[in-house]
Amino acid sequence: MNDESPPAAPRLGEIGLTNYAPYLMNRIMGRYNASLREEMAQLGLSTPKMRALAVLSVIEGPLIRELAIYAVVEQSTLSRALDQLQADGLIRRETDAEDSRATRVFITEAGRASFETLWPHMAAAQDRMFRGIPDTEKRAFVGTLQKMLANIRKHEI
Amino acid sequence: MNDESPPAAPRLGEIGLTNYAPYLMNRIMGRYNASLREEMAQLGLSTPKMRALAVLSVIEGPLIRELAIYAVVEQSTLSRALDQLQADGLIRRETDAEDSRATRVFITEAGRASFETLWPHMAAAQDRMFRGIPDTEKRAFVGTLQKMLANIRKHEI
DNA sequence: CAGATTTAAATGCATTTGCAAATATCATCG
DNA sequence: CGATGATATTTGCAAATGCATTTAAATCTG
Predict the structure, then answer these.
(1) How far apart are CA B131 and CA A152, in angstroms?
(2) pLDDT surpassing 90 at residue A17
(3) Is some CB atom of chain B closer than 8 A to the CB atom of A106?
(4) Dist. CA A141–CA B6, nearest whole Å
(5) Do B21 and A119 count as a contact with CB atoms less than 8 A apart?
(6) How far apart are CA B50 and CA B6, in angstroms?
(7) Among A78, A104, A114, A116, who pairs with A61 as Cys (CB 3.0-4.6 Å)?
(8) A110 close to B (CB below 8 A)
(9) Contacting residues of A for B39, CB less than 8 Å apart
(10) Using CA atoms, how far apart are residues B148 and B153, in angstroms rounded to an integer?
């Protein structure tokens, strides 16, 4: 009798929106991103520009295609975001020494300063998200996120 | 001596990108959304259209502004996504009985069918995200997400 | 080593997005 | 009840986005 088809995924209606993790995550991130929009606008930053600066504040001189992955921004979108950041003196591009097709990106002092202005708001937004959640729970949550990132990261850096 | 300024947020560099929850979540959701793009394209769905259908498959006849919140889509963007879904016969709009300014949105049978085609891919994408993560851990994770949603939801529905 | 293939980044272009304003209706207050 | 302000949705428009293509340089292959 072992002739059953593979078990069908339970319907979304059965799980309920609020038990479907990607829904919850999209919803939470939507709010997080929205809550930063005003501060970013004040600094003349869009989401792609902010993300690029955030990554560059931590990672020294990545290639543009690496930065696109870290910052979760389409390469062509990033290319134009970098144009603007460069025009504003917040980053500079440098042709890679070993591969002259490739370009490395560096944050400038002005870029670092700009990001330092934004960072407290980002930290506060995170704190709001985790308000009332014990530290152990938060740590476990971040641990799970790291496993998830490893899962989806098969062909990425 | 109690004259210190409030503790500054640790720098992103100190936390590290991979300990900053919003970064991890954005990165994971970026991949999740990308992994569905192809299936959606096949069905002629954009992200806003897909999200609207997903919510409508679970919630019966919400107002457009409610749908915008549930689906995490800007209202004006949603308005146009609904135009397209309606043109394709996947949803229909109905003026609210008590308030003729307001519009309720209903999924049609065709819309439900379209979403049913997409759903297995969404379920599979979630499974990939949680690959190798024990069920208790997943449940705890979703529990934390629900608390986080409650936190950011102060002024929402 | 020449030609073909792959890779990195930038760009052309049609579509999408989101802000602000417009439109339509409802609620409130004197 | 009429005027004023609030609310729901749509729409105009400039800017941003993403796909596909181009350009340039590296790598592979026979």
Answers:
(1) 9
(2) no
(3) no
(4) 27
(5) no
(6) 44
(7) A104
(8) no
(9) none
(10) 8
What CATH architecture does domain A19-152 belong to?
A: Orthogonal Bundle (1.10)
Question: What fold is seen in the domain B19-126?
Answer: Arc Repressor Mutant, subunit A (1.10.10)
Write down how long chain B is: 157
B10: confidence class by pLDDT, cuts 50, 70, 90: confident
A5 pLDDT exceeds 70? no
Copy the structure tokens of residue B92. 């229909």
CA atoms in the 13 A half-sphere facing the CB of A76: 0
Torsion of CA B129, B150, B12, A117, to 10 degrees: 140
Q: How far is the CA of B88 from the CAs of B42, B55, B57, B91, B110, in angstroms?
A: 14, 18, 16, 8, 9
Q: At B105, is the pLDDT very low, low, confident or very high (cuts 50, 70, 90)?
A: very high
Query: Which two tokens mark A103?
Result: 């370009």
Residues of chain A found within 8 Å of residue B37, distances taken between Cβ atoms: none
The tokens 């319907």 sit on which residue?
A11
Report the distance separating Cα B138 and Cα A111, nearest Å. Answer: 38
Which of the nucleotides lies closest to B49 (Cα–C1')? C16
